């Protein structure tokens, strides 16, 4: 069973506007995420916009689609992975001269049975895969930090 919440955060020495420009550009998601290889929005960034994505883990590739749920410029971006119903979000908070970014994967209502089956059959089981997701979230935030602070 999926953990209800996976979450990590980082403090970035850059204004929220600069950080927002990086995370809200879905085409750049492959630069940050170790798993995402391609992400394309099907319209402007607003609630209801869908994206088409390709993810990769080792030699395994799989397509996904997402639906944007919330867009609050320089504060919050959230989208649902349509195939498993998990919700991913980035929240930006002022932190002194910079910005704290909190990345979350919400699965408070669980994930789809198909997702559970796939994770258990092909991705090493829920515990292992969620550990890998947390590592990926930390790696993503570190790359966003490096880009924002450069």
UniProtKB/TrEMBL annotation:
Gene3D superfamilies cross-referenced by the UniProt entry: 3.30.530.20
InterPro entries assigned: Polyketide_cyclase/dehydratase, START-like_dom_sf
Domain of life assignment: Bacteria
Stored CDD domains: SRPBCC
Name this protein carries in UniProt: SRPBCC family protein
